[in-house]
Amino acid sequence: MHEMWWVWIAAGLALAIVEVLVPGFLFAGFAVGAVITGVVVGLALPGMDWMTGSLTVSLVVFAVISVVAWLAMRAVLGVRQGQMKRIDHDINED
After folding, report:
1. DSSP secondary-structure letter at 14?
2. pTM value?
């Protein structure tokens, strides 16, 4: 099943849809990682036979690509102003 490129791309599209429904960048990196993994598996580039042979290797590649994509999106898009609220005092201290 991990050798079927369309499964990876369908999973990526499903994760992208979930990302639209859930606030924040929780699933965006996973969606990008799944689509890129699907493209690499689908192209079956010469010398990449090691990737299509093992589920473990495919999952590791997916995980690495997902983390890199998430970190890149976080660096480019950054943290929104006002996303983190700082509390200077406790309302019960008065």
Report:
1. H
2. 0.72
